[in-house]
């Protein structure tokens, strides 16, 4: 299994809203502003996108350099905004290959200040080189499902299909 490390930073940009308002607008009060993937050793950005990959009801696409599969670890940095307070913000991520779940990871962010923009980084260590599937086989066949929650309340669920270029 992969080992995961997390780094968090938060910037407050607004006022609090009531928790009853949260239940009415939880789908519109959360946005992924940008995301990048870095070589975990060198810190070099290998891919960056500014599409809101949290938007549901569509399968997003990401074109990622195939050299990312040779990294010993990958740092994923997500920048997100929330209009509303979240007491236990978390992410459940599942990686599917041709519809079969290969891996699942669970990430905990914790408390989110209402009206804030936050940066969240996780470092994921890769499997051994002899256990890696070639990019030619993975290309277009990997779908990552991201489900964001506040506690047990689902905020967003989306899918991203990966293409290795």
Description of the structure:
The protein has 165 residues and is mostly beta strands. 7% of the residues lie in helices and 58% in strands. The protein has 2 helices and 10 strands, in the order E-H-E-E-E-E-E-E-E-H-E-E. The strands form 2 sheets. The protein has a 5-stranded antiparallel sheet, with no helix packed on it. Strands 4-10-9-6-7 form a 5-stranded mixed sheet. Strand 6 and strand 7 form a beta hairpin. The two termini are 26 Å apart.
Topology:
Layout: E1 4-12, H1 19-25, E2 30-39, E3 45-49, E4 59-64, E5 73-82, E6 86-97, E7 100-112, E8 116-125, H2 135-138, E9 142-150, E10 153-164
Parallel strand pairs: 4-10
Antiparallel strand pairs: 1-8, 2-3, 2-5, 5-8, 6-7, 6-9, 9-10
